[in-house]
Design brief:
It is a single chain. Strand 1 and strand 2 form a beta hairpin. The protein starts with a strand and ends with a strand. It folds into 2 domains: 60 residues, no CATH class; 207 residues, Fumarylacetoacetate hydrolase, domain 2, CATH 3.90.850. The strands form 3 sheets. Strands 1, 2, 3, 4, 5, 6, 7, 8, 11, 12, 14 and 17 form a 12-stranded mixed sheet that branches. It is an alpha+beta fold.
Length: 280
């Protein structure tokens, strides 16, 4: 299933995409987050739903999970990206940092280039959405806790990221990243390591890899994060970006107003966002 959240007619909706329509389900669960632990019940719920919205009429896509409780990101999790960044030392644990919910927008919404940064970099990533929460999740059971997968444009203000040893400021500018267009459930994905990922800037392929290239696998990441904090339904984990980021190119290539950045992941779809300048 492809599950999405939107705004339509000045109202929030979420539901399952069926062909050219979104079958709305908020009359049965108010939000996608509240429904994630009930995924097996969704097929029957679709038969009871009476509201459909044509995809062609949707003008405001939201991040698939609106206001998740926790968003974690993994840094330097593709060997090729670690090497291009000069971080070749073998790590025993993944590098984890947080993102705030209001740093993300949805599909086809504008991402905002910070007015105080001219080093606004693109980052294509796959994110995991947690369906069943837990603490101290074993690696061998971690996949059972996944509700689905989505595309993320994690994007970074590289100058702010490098102000000190903590990257959090450069990763959390308001509306600087994006997630979507939807969450695809694991039954449609199968072996996630077979997925390919691309980041395209104005149609030019800047990043290209497969998920098999992750240094720390998705089960390892889930297990590690759950070792220090409980994971809850709706929490998101972005799994890292491949090589090809703008900061390491000669000369550097950073995003500017009017640019179009697209993240395409096979089996999921394309997340597309224009860049807008921050207003005064």
């Amino acid at each position: 299933m492809k599950i999405a959240s939107i705004e339509y007619g000045n109202k929030a909706h979420w539901g399952v995409i069926d062909g050219k329509h979104l079958i709305c389900l908020e009359d049965q669960w108010p939000t996608l987050m509240s429904a994630l632990v009930h995924l097996p019940a969704l097929p029957a719920a679709l038969k009871r739903s009476k509201q459909r919205i044509a995809l062609a009429e949707i003008r405001s896509w939201c991040p698939p999970v609106i206001s998740p409780g926790k968003i974690f990101c993994v840094g330097l999790n593709y060997r090729s990206h670690a090497e291009e960044s000069g971080n070749t030392a073998v790590k025993s644990h993944p590098s984890i940092f947080p993102r705030f919910a209001d740093s993300f927008v949805g599909h086809e919404q504008v991402v905002i280039k910070p007015s105080i940064s001219d080093a606004f970099d693109y980052e294509a990533e796959l994110a995991v959405v947690i369906g069943r929460g837990g603490r101290h999740i074993p690696v061998e059971r971690a996949l059972e806790h996944i509700a689905g997968y989505t595309c993320v444009a994690e994007n970074s203000a590289r100058d702010y990221q490098k102000h000190n040893a903590q990257v959090t400021p450069g990763k959390n500018f308001y509306h600087s990243g994006a997630a979507g267009p939807w969450v695809v459930t694991p039954d449609e994905i199968g072996d996630v390591t077979r997925l390919s990922i691309q980041g395209r800037l104005n149609g030019r392929v800047m990043q290209s890899a497969t998920l098999s290239e992750l240094i720390f696998s998705i089960p390892q990441i889930i297990s590690y994060v759950s070792s220090f904090t409980p994971l809850s339904p709706g929490d998101m984990i972005a799994t890292g970006t491949p090589a090809g980021v703008g900061a390491v190119r000669v000369p550097p290539i950073f995003m500017k107003e009017g640019d179009l950045f697209e993240v395409e992941i096979s089996g999921i779809g394309v997340l597309s966002n224009r860049v807008a300048a921050e207003s005064a």
